[in-house]
Amino acid sequence: MPGIVIVGAQWGDEGKGKATDQIGEQVDYTVRYSGGNNAGHTLVVNGQTYALHLLPSGILNPNCIPVIGNGVVVDLDVLFEEIEGLEARGVESASRLLVSANAHIIAPYHQVIDRVTERFLGNRKIGTTGRGIGPAYSDKINRLGLRIQDLLDPSILEQKVVAALEQKNYLLVKVYNRAAIRPSEVTEHLLSFADRIKPMIADTARVLNDALDENKVVLFEGAQAHHLDVDHGTYPYVTSSNPIAAGACIGAGVGPTRIDRTIGIAKAYTTRVGEGPFPTELLDADGEKLRVAGREFGTTTGRPRRCGWFDALVVEQAVKVNAFTDIFLTKLDILTGWEQIPVCVAYEVNGVRIERQPMTQSDFHHAKPIYEYLPGWTEDISSARRFEDFPRNTQAYVRRLEELISVRISGIGVGPDREEVVMLHDLI
Length: 428
Ligand code: GDP
Ligand code: IMO
Ligand code: MG
Description:
It contains 13 helices and 20 strands. α3 packs across α4 and α5 packs across α6.
């Protein structure tokens, strides 16, 4: 069972970091395959909290080789800040880390463009994390990107930065009324990381395929989520990459037959950061109650997350497109204390009941949730370690979600700590 992908089944922040860490000890390689430091994955180990943005969660396990795949966009400042932050806490990380030679670099001008574009869009903004993710991926697709391997050759890097800035400076000065950015400043800054990153640069696709040939366990750690996928998400309110399970093949360089298991991570309710449709969103006191109970504030930007009930149509769509073999349900403990818990089982769109995610974005925007009301529970469930420890209504809630999304729930989070989990089936 060597190739396993973990993917967010909603709009991000489902608890992918914790789920990755759950199986960390049995894993030989953990690979980030998409996104960049727009992600924020939280792990709580022995009461210590770690928030990782760019490094794969496997970095905390000394026997696991962390890999940044070709599909990731790398902010070098963040990479080394994160490495130093971990080392200051006694987590040795740099010597094991491998970074794909083909991964793209987020240059300082990508962040500037991300922020000015959002400001320019006004109330049509996406609500990005402002980390330069979209502009870095745009340059990749436009063939104007900088890659990690360019750090090995200063003259190539310089030429590429000059070429990239020709257009961008025009845009910054003429359209956005900003100062031009000097290519030499960017090149010097990026090259200041060259000596430190050189030993980490590798043909990671080759490394991972060789590892899989040797039956090593490789865990592909998704960032963002199905509904933030640029192809399958709520476009244009998405990120600029492919977080879905198939994205692991592209973003790490392994064939589809290498993937043996795809695990969807779903919160027991729903949250979203940034703009875009969210049919079960609660804009009232109930939403605030969920936000406070679940501490729903972004790991990356600190923004309050939008909160709402579990939407079975949203998760079921992700189950289908990612072919999830299992679901890891997180934050079930946060639902303690409600008399009844609404679960969205259908939408009403233009007066018609539908039981699948609508085909068009416009219908998604107009979808009104139709709820089924499940009885709640008042008992604290955070000390449960077996399914049988749950109150009857908690068990019934889990079983009903399983029916609605047509896939088995194999693990359940009952608290942020590594230990706070109920396992129903092995994930490896
Ligand atoms: P990710 O981006 O998918 O890794 O998720 P985040 O780390 O951004 O957000 C999930 C938050 O929920 C973090 O603060 C986790 O520590 C926390 N968390 C994860 N699983 C559980 C759980 O089962 N119960 C509770 N109460 N918190 C959890
Ligand atoms: P993790 O991995 C939640 C959202 C942003 C915005 C949209 C586009 O922690 O689950 P971007 O900066 O990527 O161009 O922003 O995507 N977004 C996330 N929301 N969790 C994330 O990552 C996210 N990464 C991006 O809020 O709506
Ligand atoms: Mg997060």
